[in-house]
Structures are given as C-alpha cells and as structure tokens.
Design goal:
Radius of gyration: 15 Å
Helix content: 55-70%
Number of helices: 5
Strand order of the largest sheet: 1-2
Largest sheet: 2 strands, antiparallel
Structural class: mainly alpha
Shape: globular
Number of strands: 2
Length: 105
C-alpha cells in the first residue's frame, strides 16, 4: 500500500511539472503549486491513515521506527515539486526549498 502511494506521488508530481513546462504547457509557477496542493497531495495521501506510522526516534536507540523508508521516498518526491515551484538550483537544501515554496514538510 505504501509503495503504491510513493508511485502515485511520483506520477502526479511529474504530470503536474510536465503541464507547467514553458515549452509544452502553461508556464505559470503558481499554477503548478495549486495543482500540486489540490490534486497531487490528496491523490497520494489517500488512505494514509491505514499504512502510515509516524516516525519516532527513542532516546536510547540509534534507529528511527515507523514508516521511515516511505517518508524518505515521499520527501524526495516533494523535493522534485519544490524545485519545480521555486525554480532554484537543485543543490539547495530541502528545508530551504519548503520554506521558499511555502509547503509544509
């Protein structure tokens, strides 16, 4: 179930990015942000309460528990979206991208 959500996330992010390319579609960055927020996020987060377990790190342990792998993959998909929204270089950190794009982590 979680792998399907990651696949959907990548699919919808790439589709929205493709629509907003200057050469093939509408070249408005704000439209991409609206598409991502209104269509892509609800599509891949549907039924997340079934498969998602919050990531926790206990004090004595070095490893985090929960849906760590899924969160890591979804973070990389969100990074693709924030780079497309802001138009910055891909070497910018994800934290800065989320602030610039005004998207929650």
């Amino acid at each position: 179930q979680a792998e399907k959500a990651v696949a959907k996330a990548a699919k919808w992010t790439l589709l929205a990015r493709r629509l907003t390319k200057p050469s093939t579609g509408v070249c408005a960055v704000m439209i991409f942000k609206q598409l991502y927020s209104a269509v892509a996020i609800p599509k891949f987060m549907y039924a997340a309460d079934v498969w998602y377990t919050p990531v926790q790190k206990n004090r004595g342990e070095g490893r985090a528990t929960g849906s760590v792998g899924v969160v890591r993959k979804l973070t990389s998909v969100q990074r693709m979206a924030t780079i497309a929204i802001t138009g910055v270089m891909c070497t910018t950190t994800s934290d800065i991208l989320e602030v610039l794009a005004n998207i929650q982590p």
